[in-house]
Amino acid sequence: MTNFTYSATALDQLKKSDSEIFTALMHEETRQSDGIELIPSENYCFPEVYALLGSVFNNKYSEGYPGRRYYGGQENTDIIETLGRDRAKALFRAEYANVQPLGGSAMNQAVYFGLLQPGDTILAMDLSHGGHLTHGAPVSHMSKVFNFIRYKTELPSGKIDLDKVRALALQHKPKMIICGFSSYPRELDYAGFKKIADEVGALTFADVSHIGGLIAGGALANPMDVGFDVMSTTTHKSLRGPRGGLIVAKKQFGAAIDKSVFPGLQGGPHMHQVAATAITLKLASEPAFKTYAKNVIANAKTLATSLTEGGAQLVTGGTDNHMMVVNTVVSFNLTGNVAEVALDAAGITLNKQVIPDDPLPPMKPSGIRLGTPAATARGMGETEMKQLAGLMIRALKASDDAATLAKLRDETRAICNRFPVPGVLRDKEEKSAAA
Ligand SMILES: Cc1ncc(COP(=O)(O)O)c(C=O)c1O
């Protein structure tokens, strides 16, 4: 095992070459170990992912696709990319896959440019109601290239009303309808979206970045099963892989998407990331991952119920997936940014979040967003979710009391230390020696 950069040898080298970066790395490991990570888009990757991200695949240029490259020396990269594509197709029951996108935003851009023309109309979810920046938020470059029409969630339910989506589709005749979200705690009616798209002749595109792992693990519905044309997912969220993205689609769109990813959008793929994606997809197809996906949702439901019992008001009243959004203003008279800072002081990391039709601005919004993929990857279950909800409620009620927050931080650390972060094996002595 000498070829992994994240090995003891490489780490020793790093320590000698750059003590500042080395120390920051050690402190980050401690931060991730001692605190609880509840940001729903984050996770602890599989340990195998560290091995490949820190491997010699980092050194290789592989522009092109397996069997059709612009550089020599591809006998091993062709193997990993072919495995990655085949595994993505099998896992998501799709005819075509591309595992080269460098990230989630690039992957969505590749879909738009591959299947549409500049100026085409796309119907997608509004950012402030839970959609993603790349779904046409006015601040994103994509909104300057394509004509985005945005659907919203309905108040007071906080849910998507497909009749409203249909009305917008009939009015604007989009070329593509997107479903998918960064902040929406409910399952989507993919068949309902498909029906609307068929009625207006639009392509169907599901961006399942947040829930790709839950779909892979069979815990949530797979849009490809109801005939979606394209689906994209980041690989670093619920899938527990490297940072990156992948696209699956019907075979007829494959050539256009391949060309759009490379040479349209990207140059050389990051083959260490492609290799790490390939092993992630293998692990995500195994029975243990089914259990993981099921537990992520069970944990989210327990956390949601316990928070509600503690006085938190949840957008949509609960969750069907891995995440929830709390209206902290009505629940605790705190804006989301103040809640985020107080919880951070208690060792609990999550993010401030706008709620649907938020009267407050994004940096001081009305809520927080949290989820369970990372906690579940550490092996935490129902008991810990109840304990964490209790800690959160106490922290939110003591947001300006530093002494109480420090005490809560010790309690959080005590829970966390019973559940090591997968793949982070170094002991306390080594960390304190480095600090
Ligand atoms: C739904 C959705 N799509 C795309 C992305 C973009 O991913 P990345 O941050 O890797 O560009 C995200 C990231 O949060 C997301 O939630």
Notes on the protein architecture:
It contains 18 helices and 15 strands. Strand 2 and strand 3 form a beta hairpin. It has 435 residues and is α/β, with parallel strands linked by helices. Helix 3 runs antiparallel to helix 11, helix 4 runs parallel beside helix 11 and helix 12 runs parallel beside helix 16. The chain has two domains: 229 residues, 3-Layer(aba) Sandwich (Aspartate Aminotransferase, domain 2), CATH 3.40.640.10; 129 residues, Aspartate Aminotransferase, domain 1, CATH 3.90.1150.
What descriptive keywords fit this protein?
single chain; 435 residues; alpha/beta; Aspartate Aminotransferase, domain 2; Aspartate Aminotransferase, domain 1; 2 domains; seven-stranded mixed sheet; four-stranded antiparallel sheet; binds pyridoxal-5'-phosphate
What's the short story on this structure?
With 435 residues, this protein is an alpha/beta fold. Helices cover 46% and strands 13% of the residues.
Number of helices: 18
Structural class: alpha/beta
User: Measured on Cα atoms, how large is the radius of gyration?
Assistant: 22 Å
Characterize the overall form.
Answer: globular
Mean pLDDT: 95
What does the secondary structure layout of this molecule look like, with pairings?
Blueprint lengths: L7 H10 L1 H16 L1 E2 L9 H7 L10 E2 L2 E2 L5 H18 L3 E3 L5 H12 L5 E5 L16 H4 L1 E5 L10 H11 L3 E5 L9 H11 L2 E5 L4 H5 L13 E5 L10 E5 L4 H12 L5 H14 L2 H23 L3 E2 L8 E5 H5 L3 H10 L2 E2 L1 E3 L13 E5 L1 H5 L4 H16 L4 H15 L11 H7 L1
Parallel strand pairs: 1-13, 5-6, 5-7, 7-8, 8-9
Antiparallel strand pairs: 2-3, 4-10, 9-10, 11-12, 12-15, 14-15
Helix pairs in contact: 1-2, 3-11, 4-11, 5-10, 7-8, 12-16, 16-17
Bound molecules: pyridoxal-5'-phosphate (PLP).
The site of pyridoxal-5'-phosphate (PLP) has 14 residues, from helix 5.
